[in-house]
Specification:
This protein has 361 residues and is α+β, with helices and mostly antiparallel strands. It folds into 2 domains: 2-87; 93-223 and 229-359, Endonuclease/exonuclease/phosphatase (Deoxyribonuclease I, Chain A, 4-Layer Sandwich). It is 36% helix and 23% strand. The protein contains 11 helices and 14 strands. It has a 6-stranded mixed beta sheet with strand order 3-4-2-1-14-13. Helix 1 (2-27) packs parallel to helix 4 (71-79). It is globular.
Length: 361
């Protein structure tokens, strides 16, 4: 019986060790620069949830049949606790925070052209514009916003009347709406790239300046056909003809990951030279919490969701790809009280990310 037990146990232990090692690689994938010799390593963070779940299942399995076996995954979790909590923070108290008068609320939202694939109305009754109005946020940063819609404010004072100050850029269709004066704004693109950019705004709050970098970084540029071919492969991976789908997806992911890294480095350099008292970087970064891009911003800023959110905070919800790729970062003199993803509105392929912040005035 002991021999039979070993024959069964050792292969399972081997698989467990492999899964633990892969969880380690995924957890610290942000340390690998996409421009290096191992670009696939920098992409491995995308597989983090898979190996996280596998290791949790191994712990449950071993606790039921052989307690010592669970130590492999438990030790791995201890080593990976930082990345795990970045990806899946557990800030219980933040959910019950009551905003104070001095706090500001910010929303970042990729609107997918104001959800016009669902609703063609661009007026005040557009669901996304109605949502924006209802949230009573102080600053709203929009990506894929159709700036012609925002430009209506210059002609119609009754359009989004709660936001007297606004800025927009046709480079990437990015906009910022504010209840506080925007004293400077500039849309900045990236060389050799169309559709990706950031809108830089300086906002005056109680005689202090807040710099807001509203970003839309390089997307993965995966067509619906690419994604369909990718999932078709998993339906029947034995068909050689179907292998081209995953290969195409991986190539595009590597290319876009390198482009995002370069774009993030440009913004990171700007942040280091920032003269405003407070800084916020937000937007659709098209990268997860375990990415090089995310790690780069975290060197100088705090991730609002990691410090005051709860759960995975999935912000992209299309094509069965569920990730948090929309983020809000703050300078270290800003306290994030509560950050959350609002999945109550589904007209865009993204959910808005919201945060209540306290400026240390």
């Amino acid at each position: 019986m002991k021999l039979i037990g070993k024959i069964i146990t050792y292969p399972i232990l081997f698989v467990n060790i492999v899964a633990a090692v892969l969880l380690l690689v995924c957890s610290y994938s942000s340390l690998a620069a996409p421009k290096g010799d191992m670009p696939l390593t920098s992409l491995s963070g995308l597989a983090f949830p898979i190996f996280l779940i596998i290791n949790i299942l191994f712990i449950i399995f071993w606790l039921l049949f052989w307690t010592k076996g669970s130590l492999i995954s438990i030790v791995t979790f201890v080593i990976c606790i930082g990345p795990c909590l970045d990806y899946f923070p557990l800030n219980f108290k933040a959910k019950n925070y009551t905003p104070k008068e001095k706090d500001i609320k910010i929303i970042s939202y990729n609107t997918e052209a104001f959800g016009t694939k669902v609703n063609k109305d661009w007026g005040n009754t557009n669901p996304l514009l109605a949502y924006i109005t209802s949230q009573e946020a102080d600053i709203i940063c929009l990506q894929e916003a159709i700036v012609n819609v925002i430009a209506q404010k210059g002609k119609d004072k009754n359009f989004l009347p709660d936001y007297p100050y606004y800025a927009y850029s046709s480079i990437g269709n990015i906009a910022c709406l504010s209840k506080y004066p925007i004293i400077h704004s500039e849309g900045i693109g990236f060389e050799g790239v169309t559709g990706n950019s950031y809108l830089y705004c300086k906002i005056l709050i109680n005689n202090d300046t807040l710099a807001v970098y509203n970003c839309h970084l390089e997307s993965n540029r995966l067509s619906e056909e690419n994604i369909d071919q990718y999932w078709d492969f998993f339906d029947d991976p034995t068909e050689k003809e179907k292998i081209s789908g995953p290969k195409t997806v991986v190539k595009k992911l590597i290319t876009s990951c390198k482009a995002r890294a370069a774009q993030a480095e440009i913004i990171s350099d700007k942040i280091k030279a920032e003269t405003a008292k407070y800084t916020i970087v937000c937007g659709d970064l098209n990268d997860t919490p375990l990415s090089y891009t995310h790690k780069l911003f975290e060197k100088d800023l705090h991730d609002a969701h990691s410090t005051s959110g709860f759960g995975a905070g999935i912000s992209y919800h299309k094509h069965h790809l569920y990730y948090r790729i929309d983020h809000i970062f703050t300078s270290k003199n800003i306290k994030s009280r509560h950050c959350w993803i609002d999945n109550s509105i589904k007209d865009s392929d993204h959910y808005p990310i919201c945060a209540v912040l306290t400026l240390n005035l």
